Give the backbone structure.
Amino acid sequence: KIRFRRLRLDLEQRSIPSDAKLMVSALDDRTKASGFYHLQMGSSPAFRRLVMLDERLSGLKKARNSDVVFFTRSTFETSPDIWSSNLTFNEINRISRANPQQHEYLWGTAELTTWKASDGQVLQGILYKPENFDATKKYPMIVYFYERYSDRLHSYYPPAAGRSTINFSFYVSRGYVVFIPDIPYKTGEPGPSAANSILPGVDHLVKQGFVD
């Protein structure tokens, strides 16, 4: 349940040796934690975990003439900042603090939620809650859907105007609950596929008592 992608640290490299030691990104499908692994190629390929956090780690770049790497860390609540380390990730250092003014504003939280679709599939979605959420109160809820969004659990959204989408942090900071269900589409059945996922997800949240 962990997805890996090769990271190209040397932009001038034109081929991959069969015994290469590769850096790969990792995303846990169950928790949405992310990080980096080493993959030792060869007759018996082996993965070695370097770092995995309940955050979004991305944009890894390596210095040309040293083993120093740079990458960003973020969550829904934490603006992306630049961090540095070496290729073993035994020490991680913060480089930037790009958004200190955010503490002056109400924001919100993001969490995974699960439910059963009408056809019995267990699905995931993102539930954004207002800051200082109180489960004994009633909140208006917006449902936004587009394919599968749960992998973006730790994505950061600065408040901004949108067109065909809504800005999640904008609405959550104003007291809305926002629900984004994953939709496993069947070919030729976009409407029934959406209903199969969305409606049971909404019912699941309404039964918890905090949705107006």
Observations:
- The radius of gyration is 20 Å.
- DSSP finds two helices and twelve strands in the chain.
